[in-house]
Write a structure and sequence with these properties.
single chain, alpha+beta, Ribosomal Protein S5, domain 2, five-stranded mixed β-sheet, 10 strands, 27% strand, binds uridine-5'-diphosphate
């Protein structure tokens, strides 16, 4: 029997032609698309494909908090449940939520909370269920981005959307939007999230090594990349309302014709 070891790291993360292994330029994002209103039972939902990542987010709330002792009398609570499906990665992943999933859920909650008006919803919870069904690096950023979109789809009052992206360093070069292999075999990974209402960072993690100038470059490139992603989030919301408008127009035309 031959054992397949898929996660052997390549020696180089750039090709002969200077492009990354997946053919991207250093500041190029992976292909990204988003859609809202994908889960009918939810108050709001969104789906994202970002490179090989495929992620759903479903929002319920404001609703009663279970277990009750988590409720806060003076404000609502935001509960994020990030889960990576057992089949979403090549290596065996235990079905039960592990420490990593709990930590990422907490991080996403901290990223998104600043844009919500939780003080308006005492005693209740907003629950966001995030299911990563295919994972290939940057899932915490992709999940933050799609969760914020699902909250907007649910009509939850928000100061702005939140957008997240990872920047980092591979083979000594600063690059945007690390893939799974770049995340594992690279020199540094720096996920960040921006709350657009105040242009502030609500997430900045760092793993690896780089100098201060490289760090500044990462922040600049991260912001530029986040702006592009933000436009795709807005387009996803607009498309929903355009299609509602179109179906209203169509049905009023049809009923007009019947008279
Ligand atoms: N990953 C994996 N098995 C795991 C956890 C992660 O194969 O149990 C992969 C997955 O592709 C993930 C990547 O490693 O996207 C990087 O994981 P990390 O913990 O850095 O979080 P992420 O970059 O997804 O936010």
């Amino acid at each position: 029997m031959v054992l397949i070891i898929k996660d052997e790291y390549p020696d180089k993360l750039f090709r002969e032609d200077g492009k990354r292994l997946d053919g991207r330029e250093k500041t190029e994002l992976r292909p990204l698309k988003m859609e809202v209103g994908v889960i009918k039972n939810a108050d709001g939902s969104a789906y994202l494909e970002w490179g090989n990542n495929k992620i759903f987010a479903a929002v319920y709330g404001p609703r009663e908090v279970h277990p009750h002792h988590l409720a806060k009398p003076d404000r609502g609570v935001l509960r994020i449940f990030y889960r990576m499906a057992t089949y979403s990665v090549f290596d065996r992943k235990r079905p039960a939520p592990g420490r990593r999933e709990k930590e990422i859920s907490m991080i996403i909650s901290d990223c998104i909370e600043p844009v919500l008006f939780l003080e308006l919803y005492p005693g209740t919870a907003f629950e966001v269920f995030i299911e990563v069904i295919d994972a290939d690096g940057g899932t915490r950023c992709a999940s933050t981005t799609v969760a914020s979109l699902a909250l907007a789809d649910a009509g939850v009052p928000m100061k702005s959307l939140v957008t997240a992206v990872a920047v980092g360093k591979i083979d000594g070069e600063i690059v945007v939007d690390l893939s799974g292999i770049e995340d594992k075999a690279g020199d540094a990974d720096l996920p960040l999230a921006i709350t657009w209402f105040n242009d502030e960072l609500s997430l900045l993690q760092f793993d690896g090594s780089m100098d201060a100038d490289e760090f500044d470059t990462c922040l600049k490139l991260g912001k530029e990349a986040a702006e592009k992603i933000y436009q795709i989030q807005l387009d996803a919301l607009r498309s929903k309302y355009i299609s509602i408008q179109e179906s209203v127009n169509q049905s009023s035309n049809t009923s007009g014709g019947d008279e």
